[in-house]
Amino acid sequence: MREWIRLLIAGGCYYCGLIRLALWLKQCRGRRLIILNYHRAGGNLSAQLRYLRRHYRIMRLEDALSELHAPSRKQRDRRMPLAVTFDDGYLDNYTCAFPLIRELQIPITIFVIPGFVESGRYFWWLAASYLAQHTLAEKITIDGRTYHLAQATERGELVRAIDARLRYTQAVTERETLLAQFQSELAVILPGRSKGGIDDPSLPLTWAEIAEMERSGLVSFGAHTMHHPVLACITDVTEVKHEIEDCRRVLEARLSQPVRTFAYPIGKPEHIGSASLEAVKAAGYAWAVTTIEASNSPATDPYLLGRLPGDITQHWLVMAAELAGVLGIVSRLKKLRARVHCGG
Asked: CA 66, CA 261: separation in Å to the nearest integer?
């Protein structure tokens, strides 16, 4: 469905009152909590947050989860509760989202990766595209296949090949070795906060920026592992535990409050694995969020909480219709394709 058609339908649903009716019917089915999962800031985020502030009860994630799992109590504000989260900790969460939430007085939670905060290095899931776009090499051979980079289609295939090699490594050290190898072979050095890339919005936050956001009282932080591996692929259970436990320890040493929430990297069931699920529980987290596209009820497993994708390219009217359930499957498929290039 073309974007303008979806926008036309969504606008009609909004201005005729159908979206408001759909939200009311959802609330009649019992207590629910929507958790939105953004990554980047910018785009249509401002318009989206302004809509959400009008029609939902936006809460701090931990407050919303505590309320969801507590005995039912009547709320003066009858709007559906909603929490806004960002994964990975991109610089634009500070330069773009932070001024916006201060203006609107909206609380958010950012799930950060201490290993990238400390190193300032480029996020690994963005590396394949960066390397393919910036290399001057005419061809490269990976796993016995030669990619001729003068052809756009072959550059695209190279991106997918590099990403697959990095994504499914069985240890963080293996991934870092491969990343160094690809940089050497393509003669491209990835940018970083310590390499003059301070203004690149796709680079990670610094501890100073995190501390400033925390002091505002509007931004809370959760754990997202130390180095963002796909946990189900890590073969050493001890490494899985360290990724999960050390992340909480480092964050709590840096922040002024306990860290009780965790976000699984990538976040679908096939990326989580039983070992990491048990490690999250053992590490003392109270809740863990996934990228399973669902709202949450009091019966939802607190270690497998669902989140709906936030898409800053989307018009607020389309987002409104999707959250109410008026639009759905077409946009979900679009977001699923786009998420291949997100950390999660």
From this structure: 12
